[in-house]
């Protein structure tokens, strides 16, 4: 049930936090025209858990949301106000933050980590090997950094390596490079001990052997294999000495050539076996190969490792909007703005959800670019829908460049992906004049390699999943997946004319015609949404068979 009056809202918030056993230091309501912000102050120790509660409450407060503050910061932040102009210096600070902090790394974590409803960070911290998959910018690195921080806080020992730095290496070379760095753990964990434990000398000998191999003209697989039991024993010794768990984080797995990834993971897995050491490897799913079965090599899902899927799709656009808006408002908070509203209109926020495909990094980058575009318009007071369209259009070339950037991990695939995109664009925009399409389950089963090409474009955010199992109204049991072409592929300042496009307004998808006077068809009920999605043309995967 939605709350309406201020007393109702505060009671709703108080009950939710009480049930979660999170004490509230203070709670206040700040009202603006058309918007209510509930400011809840909690002790720093409860901050992360409070964010999750706030996310659940947003949908229950009409035209409002809950923002969480750490208690000691509340006095200063209570003075925040909205921007009155795009020339407000705080808006400039917001743009700078969005440009500088939208990409995370080990040296630059997220501005603020927002847990998802599934509490994925807790899963990532468990004593289990994990493969973490998601599109570019969806938050794989942010998740692992948050897990790393929390694990270190409870005493665990962590290791981090970015596979992109080894993108041109073979599996053996990449493994030896990684193993050399792993040998440094012994010295690091025993740095302050007056008496040096046996693991330090053991690791020093192994590091020398590894250096000799890396400096040789040819690295023989047998020489690398002989190192595996000794490295496994090093971890065993370290575990006995420290009595702590070790968590190894491997970021950007997909940058290693796909043919080399199973071998690399297999060797890493070999040295952590029977030890309290846990692998957390992140990558783009359709550019990753983590296991081959002849012979069995790598990490086998279900047996050796579990998969964490981070993709936020447009299947539930209202939830995606809530999650993304919370992240964007944390940047506004850092820029000392009460809200992004004032710099970005409500309708522009809806268009940003659609344009980003639910991907946090794209949402943040597009937000900053849209504000910059709006500043180019005379007397613009806020970023509007047309500014988001223009920002999306400017992003098109960046996404196409990423196809080339990923070519190293899947040789020969870049050209096939570009041609697949060209054919799908022609099918949608020229032949059918629509921006979304269906792929039949039977078709993807009959043409798995062709389907993989389409999926690789989704990983690159050139298409977005909007329904994973659309039923057929005529044939019981027959189902399809539904995808939408990324906004960057058909927008500029205005939508391409005479297209049937999916839009997002008032928390639901809407079918519009950009060139006519036809009234929009809202998908505001499950039945209406199904009727809209079923109108999407079916794309036949066999039209891509010559690219395989």
Short description:
This protein has 548 residues and is α/β, with parallel strands linked by helices. Helix content is 44%, strand content 16%.
Q: What fraction strand?
A: 15-25%
| Structure class | alpha/beta
Mean pLDDT: 88
- Helical residue percent band: 40-55%
- CATH top level of the largest domain is Alpha Beta
For the largest beta-sheet, the strand count, sense and barrel status come to: 5 strands, parallel
Q: Count up the helices.
A: 19
- Tally of separate domains: 4
Give the uncertain stretches in residue-range form: none
Major sheet strand order: 5-6-7-4-10
Keywords:
three-stranded mixed β-sheet, 4 domains, globular, alpha/beta, Alpha-Beta Plaits, five-stranded parallel β-sheet, single chain, 19 helices, Rossmann fold, about 15% strand, about 550 residues, about 45% helix
Q: What do you see in this structure?
A:
- The structure is a single chain.
- Helix content is 44%, strand content 16%.
- The chain is an alpha/beta fold.
- The protein has 4 domains: 79 residues, Alpha-Beta Plaits (2-Layer Sandwich); 102 residues; 190 residues, Rossmann fold; 138 residues, no CATH class.
- A 5-stranded parallel sheet has the order 5-6-7-4-10, with helices on both faces. A 3-stranded mixed sheet has the order 1-2-3.
- α13 packs parallel to α15.
- The longest helix is centred in the middle third of the chain and has 22 residues.
- The mean pLDDT is 88.
């Amino acid at each position: 049930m939605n709350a309406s009056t201020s007393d109702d809202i505060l009671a709703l918030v108080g009950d939710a936090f009480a049930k979660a056993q999170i004490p509230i230091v203070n709670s206040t309501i700040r009202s603006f025209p058309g918007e209510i912000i509930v400011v809840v102050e909690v002790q720093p120790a409860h901050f992360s858990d409070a964010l999750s509660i706030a996310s659940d409450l947003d949908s229950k407060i009409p035209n409002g949301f809950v923002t969480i503050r750490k208690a000691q910061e509340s006095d200063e932040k209570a003075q925040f106000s909205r921007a009155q102009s795009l020339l407000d210096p705080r808006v400039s600070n917001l743009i700078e933050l969005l440009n500088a902090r939208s990409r995370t790394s080990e040296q630059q974590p997220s501005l603020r980590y927002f847990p998802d409803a599934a509490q994925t960070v807790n899963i990532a911290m468990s004593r289990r090997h994990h493969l973490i998959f998601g599109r570019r910018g969806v938050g794989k690195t942010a998740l692992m950094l948050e897990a790393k921080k929390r694990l270190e806080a409870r005493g665990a020992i962590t290791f981090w390596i970015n596979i992109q730095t080894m993108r041109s290496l073979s599996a053996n070379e990449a493994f030896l490079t990684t193993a050399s760095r792993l040998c440094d753990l012994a010295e690091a964990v025993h740095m302050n001990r007056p008496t040096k434990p046996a693991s330090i000398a053991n690791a020093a000998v192994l590091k020398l052997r590894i250096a000799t191999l890396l400096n040789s003209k040819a690295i023989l697989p047998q020489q690398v294999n002989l190192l595996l039991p000794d490295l496994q024993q090093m971890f065993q010794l370290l575990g006995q000495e420290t009595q702590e768990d070790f968590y190894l984080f491997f970021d950007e797995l997909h940058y290693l050539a796909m043919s080399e990834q199973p071998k690399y993971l297999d060797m890493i897995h070999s040295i952590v076996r029977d030890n309290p050491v846990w692998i957390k490897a992140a990558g783009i799913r359709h550019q990753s190969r983590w296991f081959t079965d002849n012979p069995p090599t790598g990490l086998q899902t279900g047996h050796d490792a579990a998969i964490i899927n981070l993709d936020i799709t447009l299947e539930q656009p209202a939830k995606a909007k809530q999650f993304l808006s919370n992240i964007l408002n944390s940047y506004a908070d850092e820029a000392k703005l009460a809200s992004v509203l004032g710099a970005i209109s409500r309708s522009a926020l809806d268009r940003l959800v659609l344009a980003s495909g639910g991907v946090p990094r794209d949402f943040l980058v597009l937000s900053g670019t849209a504000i910059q575009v709006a500043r180019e318009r005379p007397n613009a007071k806020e970023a509007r829908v047309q500014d988001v369209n223009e920002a999306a259009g400017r992003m098109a070339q960046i996404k196409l460049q990423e196809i080339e950037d990923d070519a190293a991990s899947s040789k020969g695939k870049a050209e096939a992906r570009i041609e697949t995109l060209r054919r799908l664009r022609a099918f949608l925009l020229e032949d059918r004049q629509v921006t979304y399409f269906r792929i039949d389950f039977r078709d993807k089963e009959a043409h798995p390699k062709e389907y993989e090409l389409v999926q690789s474009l989704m990983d690159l955010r050139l298409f977005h999943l909007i329904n994973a199992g659309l039923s057929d109204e005529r044939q019981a049991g027959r189902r399809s997946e539904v995808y939408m072409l990324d906004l960057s592929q058909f927008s500029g300042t205005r939508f391409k004319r005479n297209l049937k496009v999916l839009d997002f307004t008032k928390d639901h998808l809407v079918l519009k015609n950009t060139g006519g006077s036809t009234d929009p068809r809202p998908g505001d009920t499950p039945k209406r949404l199904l009727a809209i999605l079923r109108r999407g043309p079916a794309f036949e995967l066999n039209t891509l068979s010559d690219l395989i």
